[in-house]
Structure formats: C-alpha cells, structure tokens
Design a protein that fits this description.
Order of helices and strands: HHHHHHHHHHHHHHHH
Strand content: under 5%
Oligomer: single chain
Shape: globular
Distance between the termini: 36 Å
Structural class: mainly alpha
Radius of gyration: 20 Å
Helix content: over 70%
Length: 401
C-alpha cells in the first residue's frame, strides 16, 4: 500500500502524463492534417502556437484558484475539461479558425494543471522528498510525450485525439476516489509549516525579488529550446534529415531520456541534500546542468545531417534538460512555500511566451534563411546560456515570500 505522500506524487504525476501526452499529439497529427487540409508552413506554425496562447493566459489563475478553492477541486475540473477538449478536436478541425480557438481553450484548461500540482506539492511533500517528487512529476510528463510519440504515428490522426482524451476521463475517476484533501480554515494544511506565514501580499511582491526572477528567467530559457523540439522536431526530421513516416516514432527517444534523467536527478539531489550539501548548491548545480548542457548539444544537433546522430544529440539535450526539475522548478517551494502555486504560475506564464513565439518565429526564420535551421537552434542555445548565468548569480533557497 502506498503512503499518502507516494500516492499524491503518483496521482499528480499521472495527471501530468495525460497533460503532456495530449500536448504532444498535435505536432505529430499536423503532418497528416496538413496533407488533408492543405495548410502552408505559416498556417502550421499558428496551429502549433495556438495552444500556448491559452496556456499562458490561465497560469496565474490556476495558482490563485487552487489556493482559494483547493487543489483537488481545481485539478479535477482541469483534467475533465482538457480531456473533453481533446476529444472534440477532430470534430471541428475542418475549420481552421475553430481549430485555432479550440487549441486556445485546451491551453487555458491545461494551464491550470501544473500550478495546481505545485500548490499541492508545496503543502503535502516534505523538503527531503521534494526533489524526487518534482523529478517524477516531470518524468511522467516526458513518458506521456513518449507514449504519444510512439503510438500516434500508427493511428489515423482523429484517433490520436480520441485515444488520449479518454485517458483523462479515467484519471478523474481515480483522483476522486483515491485522494483526500486535508483543509484548514483558509487552505490545505502544510505537512511542514513554513517559518513565515504571509497570506496577504501585494502582487508587486511577486516581481520585486531577484531570487524569484532567477527562477522565472531559468524557466523561460529552458522552455525556449523545449518548445522548439516539442513543436518542430517531427517536421525538421521529415524535411531536413530525410525521415520517413515510420521514423517519426524516433522522436520518442528524447522524451525517454528526459524521463530517465529526471528521476535519477531527483534521487541524486535528495541524496546530496541528505549528505550535507546545501539546498541552494544543489538547486544551482542541477539548473546549470539543465541549461548549459542542452544549449551545447542543441548546437551539435544543428550541425549534423545524419538521422541517428541527430537523434542522439537531441536526446542528450532533452535528458540534461530534465535536471531542471531538481533545480529551479523545485526552488519555488523553498523561496515561496506559502505561494508556490502562484510563483510557479507566473514563471510558467513567462515561460510560455516561447511556445507562442517559436511557431511563427521559427517559420519566419527558416523561410528568410532559405530553409536553414541553424539560426533557430543558435538562438535557443544563447537563451539557455544567459538563463544559466542569471540563475547561478541571483538564486536563493531561503524563504522570500
């Protein structure tokens, strides 16, 4: 029988599995959909980026309503709504504008998910288990993307959405039956109460501290390269590396590497903290590995034209990126234990800007460069390097809010 902490980690990680799987469908389905609906490269870019527009708009709402109405209620509503939206996608895809709006709506409801999970973790997971909790949360997200990437190329595009949409409805039944929320007078009770309890803060407090901005910028940097890989890897493989339809399943390899490294990094981080490393030194170490490593291997990836070698480099890049789950992503619960859902929501809002930009901007860069992708990957690497420098110099592990 799982302990309460393990059950919370498992259920939230399973929700992130569904979240990430649903998100991974469109970059694969869009190849078949483009053949059917005759979209050009710019049209594909807007379809791919439409999700991020909605996702960005609901982050802070997710962190705030979870604090007010409880993590269980908000996560139940979010998974129910995004699963319904996924299942409805094939029915409205014939209309480009209806599809665009449905992807925005999907982004809005999926945007409630992670801030709510961070809120739950900050209340229910003790600090000595927090790195591995976030490691499993991120790893299951990568596994969700992996499963979707392996399964979807073998399905007609409509069944991609029906299959993974149904998984969300199954999760809702398990969540309602297996998770019990313990609430105090105002919100869920903390398993480890913070040193300072600050319930009423001005919104400006969330943007006035460099330790918070170091997390926000590191998250933005991580997501810039992640969104490019997530949205454009199948297209890049098909157009530049000569990949056939059956090769698209190899885009699962980076996500497998990401999930494995994420779990290992979580256990290693908790081990180091238990053996007298400071929390701050561990967070900085993992963030630097998670940003500098992918920045370097993204450049290597852009320089090769051999499909297996390219997959190897992008897999190493995505694997090292998973170390961020034990770095800046775990840092929210230490810097702002009372408001981790909200600080993560702000961070994820800013980190979704690359998701909006990288669709049309990538299309424009490739078009203006006459089919060259190097400028796309060079910019992503530079952003990672800058994010690592700022986090290393400005981060903290003591309570700020």
């Amino acid at each position: 029988m799982l302990s309460k902490t393990s059950r919370i980690i498992a259920l939230c990680s399973a929700a992130n599995f569904v979240n990430s799987a649903d998100r991974a469908i469109m970059p694969i389905a869009i190849i078949q959909m483009t053949d059917e609906f005759k979209w050009d490269l710019h049209g594909q870019g807007w379809v791919l980026s439409s999700f991020a527009i909605g996702y960005m708009s609901s982050q802070v709402i997710g962190g705030s309503v979870a604090k007010k109405y409880g993590g269980k209620n908000i996560l139940t509503l979010a998974v129910l709504m995004w699963s319904l939206s996924t299942c409805l996608t094939p029915m409205i895809a014939h209309s480009f504008y209806a599809l665009f709006m449905s992807r925005v709506v999907l982004g809005i409801v999926e945007g409630l998910g992670l801030p709510t999970m961070f809120h739950i973790f900050s209340h229910a997971i003790p600090i000595e288990e927090r790195s591995r909790a976030f490691g499993y949360l991120v790893a299951l997200g990568s596994i969700g993307q992996t499963i979707a990437t392996v399964v979807c190329p073998h399905l007609p595009w409509r069944w991609m959405f029906y299959t993974f949409g149904a998984l969300g409805f199954l999760w809702v039944f398990l969540w309602i039956g297996l998770y019990t929320e313990v609430r105090g007078p105002d919100e869920e009770e903390f398993v480890q109460p913070p040193k300072v309890t600050s319930s009423n803060l001005r919104w400006t407090e969330f943007i006035c501290h460099w330790p918070l901005w170091s997390m926000y910028i590191a998250h933005f940097s991580m997501n810039w390269s992640t969104y490019i890989i997530m949205q454009w890897l199948p297209t890049y493989m098909a157009t530049n590396l000569g990949a056939e339809k059956y090769h698209i399943m190899y885009t699962a390899v980076p996500y497998i590497m990401n999930s494995l490294v994420g779990v290992l990094a979580g256990h290693l981080s908790d081990y180091l903290i238990a053996h007298r490393w400071t929390v701050l030194s561990v967070r900085r170490l993992m963030t630097c590995i998670g940003l500098l490593g992918p920045g370097l291997f993204t450049l290597f990836f852009s320089a090769v034209h051999n499909l297996p070698v390219a997959i190897l480099f992008v897999s190493i890049s995505m694997g090292l990126s998973a170390c961020n789950s034990s770095g800046h992503l775990s840092n929210h619960a230490e810097v702002a234990p009372n408001h981790a859902g909200i600080t993560f929501a702000i961070s994820n809002t800013l980190a979704t800007i690359p998701g909006i930009l990288c669709g049309p901007v990538t299309a424009e860069l490739v078009t203006q460069s006459h089919g060259r992708w190097f400028p796309v990957f060079a910019i992503a690497s530079a952003v990672n390097f800058v994010g690592a420098i700022i986090y290393l110099s400005q981060s903290a592990a003591s309570q700020v809010l």
